[in-house]
Design brief:
heterodimer, A: 290 residues, mainly alpha, MetI-like fold, B: mainly alpha, 2 domains, 73% helix
Chain lengths: 290, 276
């Protein structure tokens, strides 16, 4: 049906989306690139000039940078591992014939509707707080000292909070995939004497691969930019213990008021995101076949 | 998968599934319960699930001390406005990609999705300066544009997967009858794809409602939505648990209720049409 005229119409129809997205991406990116080679501190706005790669060198040579890189990877990898593993287990459980499946789904999906600042402040104050938190009460009822979550395990605490927010998404998608699996296939395998583990390994898991792919792709997009949860809870601390790359950039821009350095960090983050995106799209885009 | 199982097994799995679901839901439940406690009861040790002295005082005080209706209204305007505008831009694009695909269609979709991979913090300052220059800071139109552009790749992607399920012969028949491209989209495609469009709308309203980075950076008071309301509230109120819980409940209640009522469409939307 692609005649000459419909091709032209298609171009016209796609144009607004492409142009808008291009502007939305290119203008801030070009400005960030420009600032990253400039001396630009809000404390001394009069001193400006080209500084070459100084801002980049500062960023890469800062010991905080490698820590932040590690933390960023730990956050993305940790949350993906937790949500996919738990998501598969919970989906398998809910998919069983249980009473009240509808209500169950409503309960499981709830965290997805909680905006990040609320999720972070509720979990931080009502649960992880060393004096008044529920976890502290549980520890004390066993006669143990309360765990100082944000103090002693800042990165794990952030990973836990973010995992709670994203678990419903993973679970729902995996559950949807599971429900489309025909029961005859499972029953046949059962009759042939395949153990539960083998049924999972050779029938259920391959069937869910596409759904797992979607979960990883979508979550990575959102996880790479996680910021609000850290801002609300640990503020990147103690020290730099829970500073991720986005948070390190934020600290340079807002606390240190050094726009040049923050911009250099921004460009580094964009390059990293593109590397991740490239591998994701290559490895995963194929399966998606949208 | 409907399979015959023994009653005992069913009881056991039901128990296990309900326990897991309650653990996941518990933080939300605890927050709602705490919002009805007095401040001393909220931090009582040992913690109490229910207290005798339950109160609506926290809600009254939050309502009095902050302009909740304005924040709420801004959230509605921003999330609905950005999603509707996004749909208006994305429906034609998704039509073109689904029914007149070219060699580059798939690359274009991937490119659109990849724009979402740029960390927001990385471009925070340039974007702030652009908004300042265009006098868009703390305006509805500025925030609607920002949220729309943020979610546009997802809207296009979702619509594309829904449109692909519609047989192109039907659209061709409309064209044979002399309908132009706009009529074809407005009167044939849109009504047929309405369930998919509704799912897309729902998911993106939720994403926009819960967006808490640009909404906080780019607003001060006039256009600030509920995410900014809660951010301003939790900082000085961190230790007033009952009031913090009440404010938090007020911030998420509208979307929680909307989400629960539209669960079916939403689940379909959540899978981005990629999982059936």
């Amino acid at each position: 049906m692609s005649t000459q005229s419909s091709r032209l119409a298609a171009r016209v129809m796609v144009a607004p989306s492409v142009v808008l997205l291009f502007i939305w991406m290119a203008v801030p990116l070009a400005m960030t690139l420009y600032y990253s080679f400039r001396l630009y501190r809000l404390i001394s706005p009069d001193r400006t000039g080209w500084v070459g790669f100084t801002n980049y060198l500062w960023f890469v040579n800062s010991p905080e940078f490698w820590l932040a890189m590690g933390n960023t990877l730990a956050l993305v990898g940790g949350v993906l591992a937790i949500t996919v593993t738990l998501g598969i287990l919970i989906a398998l459980l809910i998919d069983q014939p249980v009473k009240g499946q509808g209500v169950l789904r409503i309960l499981v999906i709830a965290p997805f509707f909680v905006m990040p600042p609320v999720a972070a402040s509720i979990l931080e104050n009502l649960f992880m707080h060393p004096q008044n938190g529920l976890f502290a009460a549980v520890s004390m009822s066993f006669g143990a000292q309360p765990i100082l979550f944000l103090q002693d395990y800042p990165m794990s605490s952030v990973i836990a909070i973010v995992s709670w927010e994203w678990l419903p998404f993973a679970t729902l998608i995996l559950l949807t995939a599971l429900q489309s699996l025909s029961s005859e296939q499972i029953e046949a395998a059962e009759m042939d004497g395949a153990s539960a583990l083998n049924r999972f390994r050779y029938i259920i898991l391959p069937h869910m691969m596409r759904a797992i792919t979607v979960v990883i792709l979508i979550q990575t997009i959102f996880l790479l930019g996680i910021f609000g949860e850290i801002f609300t809870t640990t503020q990147g601390g103690p020290g730099s213990a829970s500073t991720t790359l986005p948070y390190m950039i934020f600290k340079q821009a807002i606390a240190a008021k050094d726009i040049g350095r923050a911009a250099a960090g921004g460009i580094i983050a964009v390059i990293l995101a593109n590397i991740v995106a490239y591998f994701l799209m290559r490895g995963i885009g194929r399966h998606l076949d949208a | 998968m409907a399979r015959a199982t023994s009653p005992r097994r069913k009881a056991l799995t039901t128990l296990a599934a309900w326990s897991v679901a309650l653990v996941i839901f518990f933080p939300v439940l605890w927050m709602i319960l705490t919002s009805f406690k007095t401040e001393p009861s909220a931090v009582a040790m040992p913690p109490q699930l229910f207290t005798a002295d339950w109160t609506l005082e926290n809600y009254a005080e939050v309502w009095q001390r902050s302009d909740y209706p304005r924040f709420f209204w801004n959230s509605v305007v921003l999330s609905l406005g950005s999603t509707l505008l996004g749909l208006a831009v994305a429906i034609p694009a998704a039509w073109a990609m689904a029914f007149v695909p070219g060699k580059r269609t798939k690359d274009l979709l991937m490119w659109m999705l990849s724009t979402k991979m740029m960390p927001a913090v990385a471009v925070m300052i340039p974007l702030y300066l652009v908004f300042l220059k265009l006098k868009l800071i703390d305006t509805h139109i500025g925030l609607v544009l920002a949220l729309m552009l943020m979610n546009l790749p997802i809207i296009v992607w979702m619509l594309y997967t829904y449109f692909k399920e519609i047989p192109s012969e039907i659209l061709e028949a409309a064209r044979m009858d002399g309908a132009g491209v706009f009529k074809e989209i407005a009167y044939v495609l849109t009504p047929m794809a309405l369930p998919g469009i509704a799912s897309t709308l729902l998911l993106n309203v939720i994403l926009a409602w819960n967006e808490a980075f640009w909404t906080i950076i780019l607003t001060t008071t006039k256009a600030a939505p509920l995410s900014a309301f809660i951010a301003s509230f939790s900082a000085p109120q961190g230790l007033f648990y009952a009031k913090l819980s009440a404010a938090s409940t007020m911030a998420i209640a509208p979307i929680l209720i909307l989400g629960w009522f539209s669960q079916k469409q939403l689940v379909r939307g959540l899978t981005f049409g990629a999982v059936k």
